[in-house]
Amino acid sequence: MAILGLLVDDLLSEPLTTAGRLDRLFADVAATAAAAPVYFASLTGELERELAVPAVSAARTEQLTSTLVRLLTPGVAAGEVREDLPLRFLAQMVGSTYISVIRYWRESPDYDITLNSARASHFLTGALAPGTG
Q1: CB contact at 8 A, 72 and 82
Q2: Closest by alpha carbon to 40, among 56, 26, 52, 29?
Q3: Which of helix, strand or coil describes residue 65?
Q4: What single-letter DSSP state applies at residue 131?
Q5: CA distance 36 to 19
Q6: Which Gene3D superfamilies match (predicted)?
Q7: Which among 3, 27, 29, 43 has most CB atoms closer than 10 A?
Q8: What is the reported pLDDT for 28?
Q9: What's the Cα-to-Cα distance from 5 to each of 11, 40, 82, 123, rounded to whole Å?
């Protein structure tokens, strides 16, 4: 999660839209999986095991949600992120999608993480946009 926080820091330091930040977030997970598939599968598998422990799971989930709230916050002021739902809920939906893309990749050797990461980002951009509710 610390690495994700650093990535979000980098994304927030650049003049990107919410769509651009999401594209880069999901492109990063795809690039990491492609560059070091064995390591990435091992790392994400270890995280899954840790999440089976409620105390660890709650802390990691909170860290993920807080990090993604930071990622989405500038989009609210820019009119790119809907305000009819709580920002924390929207961040949870982004986090759920992010984790699901990784899980599907780990479970299926035929899963195209690059394509599906791009699809996930595009889907979330639409779901987060004002007026989509």
Answers
A1: no
A2: 29
A3: helix
A4: T
A5: 26
A6: Tetracycline Repressor, domain 2
A7: 29
A8: 93
A9: 10, 17, 23, 22
Digit-coded pLDDT (tens) for 48-87 = 777 677 777 788 888 889 999 999 999 999 999 999 999 9
Under DSSP, the state recorded for 118 is: H
Q: Could you give the CA distance from residue 97 to residue 117 in angstroms, rounded to a whole number?
A: 9
- Listing DSSP states for 38-55 in one string gives HHHHHHHHHHHHHTTSHH
53, exposed or middle or buried, with CB in 10 Å at 0-12, 13-18, 19+?
exposed
Q: Give me the residue label for tokens 């997970």.
A: 29
- Yes or no: say if 60 and 50 are a contact pair by the CB < 8 Å rule: yes
The number of residues making up the chain comes to: 133
Mean pLDDT of 89-95: 97
| pLDDT above 70 as % of the chain | 94
Which residue, 51, 42, 30, 23, is CA-closest to 111?
30
**pLDDT one-digit tens code per residue, 25-38:** 999 999 988 887 77
CB 11 within 8 Å of CB 21: yes
